[in-house]
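Sample pair:
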Amino acid sequence: MSTASHQKPSRTHHPAKRTTPKPPAKPARPRSPRTKNLTIPTDVNDIELKVDGVEVSLTNLQKVFWPDQGITKGDLLRYYASIAPVLLPHLRDRAMVMKRYPHGIGGEFFFMKRAPSPRPDWIELCSIEHGSGNIIDFPVIQNTAALLWVVNLGCIDLNQWYARCDDVDRPDYLHFDLDPVPGADFDKVRETALIVRDALAELGMPSYPKTTGSKGIHIYIPIVRGPTQKQVWSFAKQFAGTLAKLHPKLITAEYRIAKRPKGRVLVDYNQNAWGRTLASVYSIRPKPLATASAPVTWDEVEDGIAIEDFRIDNLPQRVAKVGDLFKPLLTARGRFRLEKVLGAK
């Protein structure tokens, strides 16, 4: 168990501590996840599998989650097991917000922050104290076993925090969520993405795009951890507002839905606020074709991509070919020092 701070919570400081369970006989968190030999059978509805040295209970595997496609909960679990080696490094050490679809994409869903109880004793927690003094125990997805556990709860997409549990107020990246306003198509989203890329490049900021798996594009910028989430949000707001003024016929930064001009693309900065989350890279989305949030290259954005190009049935094969295009988000090299544009020393 580790504690980030003993100060009282405030708007810019939230004490957090990570609870690490006692490991089983074999380590539950291997450095390099290996799921090659993990097989989730197709001919049973419930099963217990030994993964990472622990028993994982998987239930209702034959329940159909995508009726039009005939995709089952078991298919979803098999996808995440196969993509785990590239996905897990992006989830580790971060609180996870659960968005649960117990009856698939056609049923009701609900958000859940607190790790459910009862739960396996090998699930790690990130306990975050909020301004009200309320402490929320979020689950932390450290390995394949925990990944299968959270997906088995009905989580179709995964929504982790931007900051790690040892300092939940200082994120490792900032991002922009490009979302078409009614009347705008995906071609306009791609055009906007290239404008955002070029504007960031003028500031010396590297950027990495991924499809949202829904309607838009996410653009991530790896930063050196230091600025608070509020400072990151403030920069993103100013940046988006500037682009909206420079390209008023294409871009809006208006957060109020009723006031957004039609036919524009929203450069959403507000998702950088503390406690907000976006669907993670490699997440499957609760959309009719089981589309995925897939990292892409800027060349692909320029050449023309579509949301439907990346799905549960083809993304693992693509990753096997191109690798993890979001790996720069994980490395120490190549990160931008945001203080340069914040006016900090």
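Confidence is low (pLDDT under 50) at residues 1-5, 25-34.
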